[in-house]
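Cross-check.
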Amino acid sequence: MSEYDIAHSRKLADAFPREGIATWSLEYRRIGDPGGAWPGTFDDIDTGFAFLSELAEQYSLDPERVIVAGHSAGGHLALWIAQRIEEQRAPGVIGPRGVLGLAPAPDLEYLYEHGTCDNAVGKLMGGSPEEYPERYAAGSVANRIPQSTPQIAVVGKYDETWRPVGVRYATAASEQGAPIEVIDAPESGHFEMIDPDSTTWPLVLDAARRLLGIQPD
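Predicted model, tokenized:
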């Protein structure tokens, strides 16, 4: 939703570079923004990630050590772009070596069914799965789980709203044989995991380092 813009994750995006991890933080049109929701939100992520290939050359980044990460709705979009690249990677586009989903919300059908967050998914997709099955087939990750990209999902013990969908997704991914690990953050609700001053930050940082293949000092 438009009230949760890029500013709310800036503290996290600033923390990663201090640990030696270059960060490209994407803003995208959201529910309530002109052109937001389906398909604009997804188009923005697709375009933004493709542009990373230009940034990698400009800033001498290692294209073999790139992960995608996101929180909540951003976790859904991180998994979505990884799955999309697995299926139809365009020439010259970097392939992520992992996905870090922080309280990810990738099962859009489940979220619609439960009316989560004032039916945010219905607003995102323009209606129900029955009305727009092709949109949900293209936009939800629940039925098209990334099969070759390593994934780490961090779920907060006290995140009553978003924990169920994250666990549900991780269980489905594991049952399909996808390379996924779940970190149960014992002192986290929904937002502590994007706060580098919280006790959950070391778990998030360690997960990012492991996906990137970075050994701690």
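The chain has one domain: 6-212. The first helix runs from residue 10 to 18. Passed to J.P. for a second look.
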